Amino acid sequence: MADLQPQDDLLKMSNRESWKMQHERLHVKHRGHEAMHAEMVLILIATLVVAQIVLVQWKQRHGRSYNMVTLLQMWVVPLYFTIKLYWWRFLSTWGMFSVITSYVIFRATRKPLSCRTPRMVYKWFLLIYKLSYAVGVIGYLAIMFTMFGFNVFFRIKAEDSMDVGVIMLFYGLYYGVMGRDFAEICSDYMASTIGYYNMGGMPSRNLSDDICAVCGQKIFVDLDEEGIIEDTYQLSCNHIFHEFCIRGWCIVGKKQTCPYCNEKVDLKKMMNNPWERTHVLYGQLLDWLRYLVAWQPIIIGIVHGINFSLGLE
């Protein structure tokens, strides 16, 4: 009966109290193992340094294979943890994103390429980009909302509001990374399929003055006119494009060259609205998150394997 009493008390505790109790037991268990813990920390730091050097060299020498493997891991690793931890809400959004994106990629890789496919592809990934950006910002604001204690005025528990903020921030960043990477694959393939430029940077066929090099469709709005849906943009190389196409090419697909002549594009001249500069900074944040999600679990797994082989607990 005495042995059952602590278990009954543990069941009556709240989640936070139970977590504190388990944390205290963990400290008691590892008390006196400071030397072993220091060795484990050194192994972690050394593994992180070596892994970073290897990844940087791989990316510089074989960028295409690095990006493909990273994208595959970005797609698979969260799925593993989702199934393991029963995160069905994330699994449902991941499934919808995967199905629609798979169809978009299928359309983008068909030969001959339909004239409507490029705009459809860019619309989808630009939608994902904007949604992920909005969800990420809302999640960040929810976290700040909780940290400054504003949740008290609305009688919202700090744990609940913080959980919502962290989840939304993760959703925004994760799908932002996935959307950008898949958009890059599609933009490379479509541009070479359309035939206005090749990997060597030289156009493979002539471009008419009233044709957009991204989607291959006719341009109806003049440069000095304001379009109802979208305007017409002219790059520094004097080639003109649909606004939606060239913004998708440069911002979503991470392209900073002209789709026709491969000349470098000045994004600052394209972004008349200063608020749009935030999207570039957000894109840099997504590039950093790619390493965190795709490679960090593998690095931690390697560290655990080394510790286990050395008999460190």
UniProtKB/TrEMBL annotation:
Transmembrane segments: 40-58, 65-81, 87-106, 127-154
Coarse class of the protein's main subcellular location: membrane
Subcellular location: Membrane
Keywords for this protein: Membrane, Metal-binding, Transmembrane, Transmembrane helix, Zinc, Zinc-finger
GO cellular component terms attached to this protein's record: endoplasmic reticulum membrane; Golgi membrane
Membrane topology: Multi-pass membrane protein
Cross-referenced SUPFAM superfamilies: RING/U-box
Official protein name in the record: RING-type domain-containing protein
PANTHER family linked to this entry: RING FINGER PROTEIN 175, RNF121 PROTEIN
Gene3D superfamilies: Zinc/RING finger domain, C3HC4 (zinc finger) (3.30.40.10)
Gene Ontology MF annotations: ubiquitin protein ligase activity; zinc ion binding
Residues annotated as domain RING-type: 212-262
Domain of life: Eukaryota
